[in-house]
UniProtKB/TrEMBL annotation, chain A:
<feature type="transmembrane region" description="Helical">
    <location>
        <begin position="198"/>
        <end position="221"/>
    </location>
</feature>
<feature type="transmembrane region" description="Helical">
    <location>
        <begin position="241"/>
        <end position="260"/>
    </location>
</feature>
<keyword id="KW-0812">Transmembrane</keyword>
<comment type="similarity">
    <text>Belongs to the MlaE permease family.</text>
</comment>
<protein>
    <submittedName>
        <fullName>Phospholipid/cholesterol/gamma-HCH transport system permease protein</fullName>
    </submittedName>
</protein>
<dbReference type="Pfam" id="PF02405">
    <property type="entry name" value="MlaE"/>
</dbReference>
<dbReference type="InterPro" id="IPR030802">
    <property type="entry name" value="Permease_MalE"/>
</dbReference>
<keyword id="KW-0472">Membrane</keyword>
<dbReference type="GO" id="GO:0043190">
    <property type="term" value="C:ATP-binding cassette (ABC) transporter complex"/>
</dbReference>
TrEMBL record, chain B:
<protein>
    <submittedName>
        <fullName>Phospholipid/cholesterol/gamma-HCH transport system ATP-binding protein</fullName>
    </submittedName>
</protein>
<dbReference type="InterPro" id="IPR003593">
    <property type="entry name" value="AAA+_ATPase"/>
</dbReference>
<dbReference type="InterPro" id="IPR017871">
    <property type="entry name" value="ABC_transporter-like_CS"/>
</dbReference>
<keyword id="KW-0067">ATP-binding</keyword>
<dbReference type="InterPro" id="IPR003439">
    <property type="entry name" value="ABC_transporter-like_ATP-bd"/>
</dbReference>
<keyword id="KW-0547">Nucleotide-binding</keyword>
<dbReference type="InterPro" id="IPR027417">
    <property type="entry name" value="P-loop_NTPase"/>
</dbReference>
<dbReference type="Pfam" id="PF00005">
    <property type="entry name" value="ABC_tran"/>
</dbReference>
<keyword id="KW-0813">Transport</keyword>
Length: 261, 258
């Protein structure tokens, strides 16, 4: 019994090491190809359009509702303590520092990482990636570099937009019961914020974007043969990228606390 | 395809012809599964070799090794005078630009039109920039495969035979010296299958290529093969012309020709 367990554990550990090795090699290929001649600007812009523009409505609605719900949830409690005037500050700090970046990154993981994983997985299964390789084109440069960089650039922009809309949602939430002018609400929101809130949270969104693009590409690019593996690639891209986002967030909070507080 | 052309194609390679692919004692295993046990083969310039064999015998693995998509475990593999395993990444890239590969499915890029599929290797490999010149290359190669009208269509709008033709056009656009065909007629009706086989011969004559063709389709083999190599359990068990092998007393070989 013990021997079987030990053998299973060894096999699982070996597989894990293999995967880590593959990811290191893939990271190396990605890094090498960023600086190679012939950067695919056209494909990069197309991917920015797909990742950014096509996610705007989803991210906007999510951002607005986060701010709206957060206000509705906290306002009664703060009202009990006579601290209702702290609602804008509380909403802005919560949104900008933590909730906005993490929720939007998770939303993008569901939309973008799964789509990249499925697209590249399907290209792998139908031998389109192999066709690029044998025709001397560079599939890593064309498919991976463009997608990872597009995610790295667009996720922070989407997060900033979502943060702004979340504040707007907060203002709408406050105005359901009370009447507060938009100028006053936003002034109080911004007064509560410092650069130490904004900068680390924006920086971490670049890492979130990178994780989303990289994991999506890695899972798709390493899909095995068969249509089932396309679904598996999309699914595991979402699961792995979500875990990476939580992990990066935990590390980012520790670093921010060490640097600023 | 008339019988004269079939007869003409059924010629053995001339001794002393240039060897463009030399495979010597090639071995390849996936885990415990030894797919290629000991493969040796020579492809001469201007020659078409058909590789016959049942499914899972290692035919596709052989040409994937030639194209550098898979790394052999043992043996020597020389393509256009260069030992593949000794090539650097850039050298392999250069070699691949002289090598065409027609995949079983055609492997067209789904998100691109036929025009974009054909321009893709021109801009990436030949670094062409002049739109008018590229358009001329694209039209020329589409004319060769008889699909000028499909230029703005997406792969999803094409039939199986048309996809194979576009795949062939994309392979030919870089003017390769060698073409590797992975089951070019699989999944096609007999008429389209015959058309593709005739097209392979026609294009080989026009572009002066040498080819390895993996197929189960004996009608295709009869039309395109100068020589046939029969593969079984990871090794070649016989090579010869269509006529020679069709008279073989070996039951396994004979079964293909029944």
């Amino acid at each position: 019994m013990l021997t079987v367990m030990a053998s299973a554990l060894t096999s699982a550990f070996n597989k894990y090491l293999e995967m880590v090795g593959e990811q290191v090699v893939f990271t190396g290929q990605f890094a090498r190809n960023i600086f190679r001649d012939g950067f695919e600007w056209g494909e990069f812009l197309r991917q920015c359009f797909i990742v950014g523009y096509r996610s705007i409505s989803l991210v906007a609605i999510t951002g607005f509702i986060i701010g709206f719900v957060l206000t509705l949830q906290t306002q009664p409690t703060l009202k009990d303590f006579g601290a209702e005037s702290y609602v804008p500050g509380m909403v802005s700090i919560s949104i900008v520092r933590e909730i906005g970046p993490v929720i939007i990154a998770l939303i993008c993981t569901g939309k973008v990482a799964s789509s990249i994983g499925a697209e590249l997985g399907s290209m792998k299964v139908t031998e389109q990636i192999a066709a690029m390789e044998v025709s001397s084109a560079n599939p890593v440069q064309y498919l991976v570099v463009t997608r990872v960089l597009a995610c790295t650039v667009m996720v922070p922009l989407l997060t900033i937009m979502a943060d702004a809309l979340a504040l707007l949602g907060g203002w709408v939430g406050v105005n359901i019961q009370d009447h507060v002018s938009i100028v006053l609400f936003f002034r109080k929101s911004f007064n509560a914020l410092h650069f130490s809130d904004l900068i680390p949270s924006v920086i971490k969104t670049f890492f979130f974007g990178y994780a989303i693009g990289f994991v999506g590409c890695y899972k798709g690019y390493h899909a095995s043969r068969g249509t089932e593996s396309v679904g598996r690639a999309a699914n595991s891209a979402v699961v792995s990228a979500s875990l990476w986002i939580i992990l990066i967030d935990a590390i980012a909070v520790q670093i921010t606390n060490l640097v600023y507080y | 395809m008339n019988d004269t052309l079939v007869q003409e194609k059924a010629r053995p390679p001339v001794a002393g012809d240039d060897v463009v692919i030399r495979i010597e004692h090639l071995k390849k295993a996936f885990g415990d599964n030894e797919v290629l046990k000991d493969i040796s083969l020579e492809l001469h310039r201007g020659e078409n070799i058909v590789v016959l064999g049942r499914s899972g015998q290692g035919k596709s693995v052989t040409i994937q090794c030639v194209a550098g998509l898979l790394e052999p475990d043992e043996g020597n593999l020389e393509v256009l005078g260069k030992e593949v395993k000794e090539l650097s990444e850039d050298e392999l890239k250069e070699l691949r630009s002289k090598l065409g590969f027609l995949f079983q499915s055609g492997a067209l890029y789904d998100s691109m039109t036929v025009r974009e599929n054909l321009m893709f290797p021109l801009t990436r490999v030949l670094k062409m920039k002049d739109e008018a010149e590229m358009e001329k290359w694209v039209t020329d190669v589409l004319e060769s495969v008889g699909l000028e009208e499909a230029i703005d269509k997406y792969p999803a709008d094409l039939s199986g035979g048309m996809r194979k033709r576009v795949g062939l056009a994309r392979t030919l656009i870089l003017r390769p010296e060698i073409i590797l065909y992975d089951e070019p007629t699989t999944g096609l009706d007999p008429i389209t299958s015959r058309e593709i086989s005739e097209l392979i011969v026609k294009l080989q004559e026009k572009y002066k290529t040498s080819s390895i063709i993996i197929t189960h389709d004996m009608a295709c083999a009869r039309i395109v093969a100068d020589r046939i190599a029969v593969m079984n359990e990871g090794a070649f068990i016989a090579t010869g012309t269509y006529d020679e092998l069709s008279k073989s007393p070996d039951e396994l070989i004979n079964n293909f020709f029944k």
